[in-house]
Each structure stands twice: as C-alpha cells, then as structure tokens.
# Entry
Amino acid sequence: MKYDLHCHSRFSDGELGPAQLLALACEQNLDLWAITDHDTIAAWPVLLEACEQLSQEQQAKLPKLITGVEISSQWQGAGIHILGLNIDPQAEVLNQFLTVQAQLRGERAELIAKKLAAKGLGELLAGALALNDDKLDGLSRVHFAKAMVASGVVKSSKQAFDKWLGNGKIGDVKQSWPELEACVAAITQAGGVAVLAHPLKYKFTTTKLKRLLNDFCAAGGRGLEVVSAGQNPQQLALLSQLAQEFELVASGGSDLHQAGLSWCQLGQLVPIPKACKPVWELF
Ligand code: AMP
Ligand code: MN
Ligand code: MN
Ligand code: MN
# Structure
C-alpha cells in the first residue's frame, strides 16, 4: 500500500497547486492520498477538477482520494495540529469552523506583523499578503518567513523561523487557536477521523505526550500519525507502541510542503507497522 495522508498545497503554506501535487501522486503510484492543508479544505474542489482534466487512462490509475485538513489547536498552551481525514467537505459545522480559523489566522497575521515591526524588521504584512493572493484570512507564518527573505532581513526561511517565527519566538503567536476538544469535535461532526499530527514535533516528554493522548482520546480522537518523513526506527517504535497502548489507528504522511527535497518526498514512507491498525480501515 503506497500512501501519503499529510501534505500541503498552495491553499495553505505549500508551494504546489493541487494539480501539481496530483501529478506527483500519480508519478509515485500512490494508492491512497490526502491533501491536508492548514485550516482549509479549499484545495478539494480544485483537485477534483484536476482529476477530471486527466485522460481516462490516467484516471484509471488515480490513487484513492481522501479528503483532509490539518487543524491548528492548542492544548495546555502548546500549539497542536490535528488532522481530519475522510471528512465530509460539505459539512456545515466544519465549514463554519474553518471560516473562523481563517479569520483567526488573519487577526494573528496582523499581530505578528506588529510584533516584528516593533523589533525593527520593517513592514512585512504587504509582502506576506502578496504571497496569499492578497488575502489576510488564512495567512501563515510561512508567508511571513518568505516575506522576510524577500525583504532581506533574513537569509533563508529557516533563519526566519530560528530567529523570529519558530516555537517560542516573538512571531510565534498561537494563543488564538481553539482548544483541542473543539477541533476534534469539528472533525468528528463532519464524519472524519481525528488524527494527532506529528506527535514528536511538540518535543514533549513521553509522560506529557501520554497526557496529551489521554485528553485527545477523551475528546474523541481516533488516530495517531505513526509514520512521518525523516523519522528514525526508535521514533517509529515509540509511536507504534503509543498507538497500541491508546488503541489509536495509525496514519502516516510526508507533511510535504514543496517538491525537490530529498528527505521529504510524496509517498516515500515506510509501511504502517504490522502491530498497528491502519487508519484506512476506517475509511
Ligand atoms: P502556522 O500554521 O502559520 O502556525 O505556521 C506553521 C507552519 O510553519 C508549519 O506547518 C510549517 O510548515 C512551518 N514551520 C514551523 N516551524 C518551522 C521551522 N522551524 N522551520 C521551517 N518551517 C517551519
Ligand atoms: Mn505548514
Ligand atoms: Mn503540522
Ligand atoms: Mn502539515
């Protein structure tokens, strides 16, 4: 089973449009695939349209397409990402929820711009907006990182995150995200499976991660992202064991944002560990 249930398009902070991602997914012969943009499902209709443009021969080889989203939440003050897989894209509750998320991103962007300007980095909002079709709603830190590179205040996006936008830095404004429970509920009410994204990225101790998993399960969360790009065997073993301990199904995805990186390619993932129940058994 070649799968990838976590990647980003231009509708959030990815560099590729849905049609370009689709071409990659077909090139990789994926069997199962989802685009999971941050707080938006706007790529879905565009992806379906791109599929219709393909020849019948190409359409016969398409991966099974799963709807997806990666929702920004907070838990005990930390920013936590929850994937919603196999959601109903028409679901009223989810769409309303995501409209608010996009507005929160807009409000946060204004705050980020103010904080960075106060540090003498200049006016960055216009540059960030230009990378998001001039829309304030939905703006991300990645847009700011790119605007900072363009204006010359940093050399690379990495430096922008290391100095200004990364965890705990001045531009890491996350207090506006809804609590974990509300995010899981929005996914569940839309018929989706809530999956805790990249559990090791939060840099929690295993004890704290288990507390998060307790709360996540109590809220109705059903899956754990056990496989991510660039993981080592120990990390995989830990996540596999946690999925079993908390009776969570196992998901996996590259979290691809751009093409051409050797360590992060669409669908280049190890299999879901045999001891785990794969998330697709719920689709
Ligand atoms: P946001 O959704 O606006 O909070 O931005 C979070 C996004 O920024 C993540 O999904 C990553 O794509 C990117 N990101 C977060 N931390 C880093 C980092 N240290 N270096 C590069 N990109 C990062
Ligand atoms: Mn991202
Ligand atoms: Mn994430
Ligand atoms: Mn992601």
Observations:
- The longest helix spans residues 92-118.
- The chain has a mean pLDDT of 96.
- DSSP finds ten helices and eight strands in the chain.
